[in-house]
Amino acid sequence: MALFALTLKFTDPERRLEVMPTHREYLAELYAAGKLHAAGPFADASGALLIYDVADEAEVRGIIAKDPYTEADVYEIVMLQEWEKRFPPA
User: Fold this and answer.
1) Which pLDDT does position 8 carry in this prediction?
2) Torsion angle, CA of 34/36/37/38, rounded to 10 degrees?
3) d(Cα 66, Cα 43) in Å, to the nearest integer?
4) CA-CA distance, 37 to 3, in Å (whole number)?
5) CB burial class (10 A; 0-12, 13-18, 19+) of residue 4?
6) pLDDT of 26-58, one tens digit each?
């Protein structure tokens, strides 16, 4: 398994709030399935950080494509990159 960090910038704050409940349900499903390591918005609500635990980049891109936020077009991807967790040690 690999960890991927996604940072995004919100582009439609009003629409984002409308879609948030279904987005959070989706994230809860991913977390329960062991595919989401952590997620949350930045304190200024300009965007968010999500860390996925997946087999590869193709899997994470598929997960992102199914996210209600993606379908609602409320953000831009700033970065999607494989991440190496160093602390705390495994």
Assistant:
1) 97
2) -150
3) 25
4) 8
5) buried
6) 999 999 999 999 999 999 999 999 999 999 999
Report in angstroms the alpha-carbon separations of 69 from 2, 44, 55, 85, 87. Answer: 23, 18, 22, 26, 30
Chain segment 6-28, per-residue pLDDT in tens = 999 999 999 999 999 999 999 99
pTM over 0.85? The answer is yes
Q: Name residue 81's beta-bridge partners.
A: 5
15 token code pair: 């629409």
Cα(1)–Cα(24) distance, integer angstroms: 23
